[in-house]
């Protein structure tokens, strides 16, 4: 535990957002007095958990120790944030320590709201009930898929906020191809219980995904939100948009659970009515407390909750904090960029990039709505390397600098 209790910049959260912001700040000014509050010893590259669930990665391929990622000269407060007092510029941790700040960056991520689905918690990890949204169960996803003998395989997408909104269908496409390889596809009914009314929120990418589910003969049930799992009878209960409930028997089910912000954020003055850190969607500056910034999954930024979005949010936060420190008005703006590498099968990916306008913003001179082998290589090999070796170290990695790695497809 740090003996120092006063910092120029205090960051809550040592995930993708917190480490990237700290690294960029230190790269800009090595003398800044920065601390990160983060209770976890291990840091996971969560975008790869789909590949763990699909049998392409091992879980240990996705983890590094937090101590090796926090930038040199940044204090690691290994504790949980428990109370934020922006009126007095203080954060209290679970152990009772109080830390003061001049500037606060809030980015602890979001947490899974297990209890919104009755029976989910007690059935996870057995009897074919799994999720890639927790590291403990991603390997079980693959075990379930490779041992599947046919029947009904359900994949779900929840109502409300979710990390990486493409992930629920990525694992479904991998499973569909695995079932084909294993010779059980013809005796398998794949159901996508989707609480929303479309496959993807950006029209340009929604259209090809609708064709893919048709091609793969996947039974998409729109407006179906999973509310209960009955493990003893292997039944999934969905609430429909019409206010009815529908029961579907399953042989395996991959659940993408509902998600929410942590209680210490919901209960703080920083939260909006929905519980998110209430920030300006362009500057990432808090709407009331001007020395507070938010980014990443816990923020109110109206974009997809992905590591790729954080890559574009972090430089905006850094530039605007440094502007404030120089008594200048924050000018840097975030345009809502997000990226979702939509895996559509083994060796195939649609690299869905977009911004607040919900228009494609491709990094490559290729039609971004097409499935490509090259984008699978980007997803599987290049993005993890860039995450660990460029993004978390606060170094830029615009695609121009690594396009030469790609085949022409």
Automatic annotation (TrEMBL):
Gene3D superfamilies hit by this protein: FAD/NAD(P)-binding domain
SUPFAM superfamilies: FAD/NAD(P)-binding domain
Species of provenance: Cyanobacterium aponinum (strain PCC 10605)
Membrane keyword on record: no
Pfam family, any one: Pyr_redox_2
This protein's name: FAD-dependent pyridine nucleotide-disulfide oxidoreductase
Cofactor(s) required for function per UniProt: FAD
Organism domain of life: Bacteria
Keywords: FAD, Flavoprotein, Oxidoreductase, Quinone, Transit peptide
Molecular function per GO: FAD binding; quinone binding; sulfide:quinone oxidoreductase activity
Cited PANTHER family: SULFIDE:QUINONE OXIDOREDUCTASE (PTHR10632), SULFIDE:QUINONE OXIDOREDUCTASE, MITOCHONDRIAL (PTHR10632:SF2)
FAD/NAD(P)-binding domain segment(s): 7-127
GO biological process: sulfide oxidation, using sulfide:quinone oxidoreductase
Keyword Transit peptide: yes
Family annotation (InterPro entries): FAD/NAD-bd_sf, FAD/NAD-binding_dom, Sulphide_quinone_reductase
């Amino acid at each position: 535990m740090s003996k120092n209790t006063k910092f120029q910049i205090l960051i809550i959260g040592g995930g993708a957002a917190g480490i990237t912001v700290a690294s960029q700040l230190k790269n800009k000014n090595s003398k800044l007095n920065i601390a990160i509050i983060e209770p976890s010893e291990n840091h996971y590259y969560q975008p790869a958990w789909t590949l763990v669930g699909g049998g392409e990665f091992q879980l240990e391929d996705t983890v590094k120790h937090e101590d090796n990622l926090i930038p040199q000269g940044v204090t690691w407060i290994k504790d949980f944030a428990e109370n934020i007092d922006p009126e007095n510029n203080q954060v209290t941790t679970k152990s009772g320590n109080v830390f003061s700040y001049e500037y606060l960056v809030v980015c602890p991520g979001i947490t899974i709201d297990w209890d919104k689905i009755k029976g989910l918690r007690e059935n996870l990890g057995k009897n074919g009930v799994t999720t890639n949204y927790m590291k403990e169960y991603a390997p079980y996803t693959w075990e379930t898929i490779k041992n599947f003998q046919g029947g009904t395989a359900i994949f779900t997408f929840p109502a409300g906020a979710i990390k990486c909104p493409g992930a629920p269908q990525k694992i479904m496409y991998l499973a569909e191809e695995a079932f084909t390889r294993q010779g059980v596809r013809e005796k398998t009914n794949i159901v996508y219980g989707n609480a929303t009314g479309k496959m993807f929120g950006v029209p340009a990418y929604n259209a090809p995904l609708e064709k893919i589910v048709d091609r793969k003969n996947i039974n998409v049930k729109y407006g179906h939100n999973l509310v209960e799992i009955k493990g003893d009878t292997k039944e999934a209960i969905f609430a429909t948009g019409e206010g009815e409930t529908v029961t579907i028997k399953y042989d395996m089910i991959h659940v993408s659970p509902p998600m929410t912000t942590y209680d210490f954020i919901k209960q703080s003055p920083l939260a909006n009515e929905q519980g998110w850190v209430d920030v300006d969607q362009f500057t990432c500056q808090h709407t009331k407390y001007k020395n507070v910034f938010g980014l990443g999954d816990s923020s109110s930024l109206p974009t997809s909750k992905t590591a790729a979005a954080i890559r574009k949010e972090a430089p905006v936060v850094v530039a605007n904090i440094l502007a404030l420190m120089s008594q200048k008005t924050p000018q840097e703006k975030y345009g809502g960029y997000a990226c979702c590498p939509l895996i559509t099968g083994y060796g195939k990916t649609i690299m869905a990039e977009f911004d607040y306008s919900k228009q494609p913003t491709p990094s490559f001179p290729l039609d971004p709505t097409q499935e490509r082998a090259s984008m699978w290589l980007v997803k599987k090999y290049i993005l993890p390397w860039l995450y660990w070796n460029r993004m978390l170290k606060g170094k830029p990695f615009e695609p121009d600098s690594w396009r030469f790695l790609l085949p022409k497809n």
